[in-house]
């Protein structure tokens, strides 16, 4: 909040705005839904779910605010996100304690070669996505999305409806514009660079679960160096959000199947998929692996019922 109020560089203010609008509420929501349980996710999984749910909070909150009469102001947007964070903190504070101790294993149990290789991979992904992030001017579809963000801030009610790709790639720009007072190239690109970087980690976690550490590393490495994903990860475009939300949706469903988590991971998966669909209908591709995992879960439930009988 202080960085948004005091004179600071564009980079620091953009980071503070994204933290207030997405990262902090997403982390608190992930804590409410998945934390302090016997099946609490590991550190890497928490990061993936926090960022994914954070974009969901951002998109749904700004979507609701955009329907109010008039334009959006700094006070209106900042107060709304502060209130959401406070409410989530209250929910965390009043929830009952778990009966059994939390038994989640963090991804960095010891400094083994696999952990060092993952850190090197994430550092490389960060270098490819965050360095010189504001070097290029907004152009083409980027400029159109930025103009729609300005329309939302000024209170044009049809701004999101005339945009044919969904509001998911406009509303992050709206949040940063409202909170910083300007929309530079760095600020416009930052939310999508974070989504792209987190998608690399999500790919590693999912592939590691299915095929092991080595396969997970190589899968994430190919995603990290993929020219298309790297390029859209540095642009004001929806593809990075789709990439993160589709992979994290499948990851949440896989955890639901593994941990039989009484609906919590199913709820997380539903929120992530809904956010992806608000960005673009391409997110429906997650339904294919989701359907297969739901069949696996259904077969597990049938097997357990037969054992009880």
Tell the overall outline: globular
Instruction: List how many beta strands DSSP finds.
Output: 0
Q: Could you name the ranges where pLDDT drops below 50 across 5 or more consecutive residues?
A: 99-110
Strand content bin: under 5%
Measured as a percent range, the helix fraction is over 70%
The Cα radius of gyration reads: 20 Å
Average pLDDT, to the nearest integer? 86
Q: What's the number of helices?
A: 13
Reported for the largest beta sheet, the result is: none
Distance from first to last alpha carbon:
58 Å
Query: How do the SSEs run, as a string of H and E?
Result: HHHHHHHHHHHHH
Structural class comes to mainly alpha
Key phrases:
single chain, 309 residues, mainly alpha, 72% helix
């Amino acid at each position: 909040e202080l960085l948004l109020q005091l004179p600071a560089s564009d980079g620091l203010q953009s980071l503070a705005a994204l933290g207030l609008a997405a990262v902090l509420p997403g982390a608190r929501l992930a804590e409410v839904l998945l934390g302090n349980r016997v099946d609490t996710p590991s550190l890497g999984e928490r990061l993936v779910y926090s960022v994914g749910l954070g974009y969901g909070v951002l998109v749904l909150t700004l979507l609701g605010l955009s329907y109010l009469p008039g334009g959006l102001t700094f006070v209106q947007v900042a107060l709304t996100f502060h209130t959401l964070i406070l409410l989530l903190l209250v929910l965390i504070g009043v929830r009952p304690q778990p009966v059994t101790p939390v038994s989640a294993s963090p991804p960095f149990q010891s400094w083994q070669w696999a952990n060092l290789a993952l850190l090197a991979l994430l550092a490389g992904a960060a270098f490819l996505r965050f360095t010189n992030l504001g070097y290029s001017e907004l152009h083409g579809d980027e400029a159109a999305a930025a103009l729609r963000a300005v329309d939302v801030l000024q209170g044009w009610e049809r701004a999101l409806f005339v945009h044919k790709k969904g509001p998911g790639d406009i509303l992050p720009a709206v949040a940063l514009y409202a909170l910083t007072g300007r929309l530079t190239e760095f600020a416009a690109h930052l939310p999508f660079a974070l989504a792209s970087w987190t998608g690399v980690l999500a790919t590693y976690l999912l592939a590691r679960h299915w095929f092991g550490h080595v396969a997970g590393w190589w899968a994430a490495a190919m995603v990290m160096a993929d020219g298309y994903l790297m390029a859209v990860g540095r642009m004001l475009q929806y593809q990075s959000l789709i990439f993160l939300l589709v992979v994290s949706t499948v990851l949440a469903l896989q955890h639901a199947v593994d941990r039989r988590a009484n609906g919590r991971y199913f709820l997380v998966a539903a929120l992530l998929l809904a956010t992806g669909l608000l960005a673009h209908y391409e997110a429906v591709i997650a339904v294919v692996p989701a359907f297969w995992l739901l069949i696996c879960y259904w077969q597990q439930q049938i097997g357990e019922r037969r054992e009880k009988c």
